[in-house]
Amino acid sequence: MAKRAKTNQGTVPDLHQRLQHVLIVIRVWLTIIVETLMEGPVAAVQKCFFNAQQRRGKRQNEYKAPLPKEFVDATSQEAWLTQMLTAQLPVEAQAYSTVVLNVLKAGETQKAEALLRKMPASTSNTTSLYLYHALIETLAKSGKISQAASVVKELERNGNPKPHAACYNVMMDAFAKLGDVQQAEYWMGRLKSAGIEPNIVTFSTVIDACAKAGDIARAESWIHHMASCNVEANVISYTAVIAACAKAGDVKKAEGWLQKMTRAGVKADLVCFNNVIAACAKAGDVDSAERWLQKMLQSGVQADAISYNTIIATCARGGDSKRAEYWLASMKDSGMQPNIVTYSAVINACAKSTSDLARVEHWLTEMTNSGLGPNVICYNSIINACAKAGDMERAETWLGKMLEAGIQGDVISYTAVIDACAKQSNILRAEAWLQKMLSAGVEANVVTFGALIHSCARSGDVAKAEHWLEQMQLRGVKANAVTYNAVMSACMKCGDIERAEKWLKMMQGAGIAPDVVSYNTLITAFAKAGDLARAEEWLQRMEEAGITPNLVPFLCMITVHSQQGNVREVERLFAQVLRRRLRPDARFVSAIILAYGNASPRQPQQAIVAFQRLVSRGIPVDHMAVQELCRTVGRKMAMQVCDELGLDDECLQSRRSQGRAFTRSDGLCKTSTTTKIA
Question: How far is C-alpha 254 from the chain's CA centre?
Answer without folding.
Answer: 22
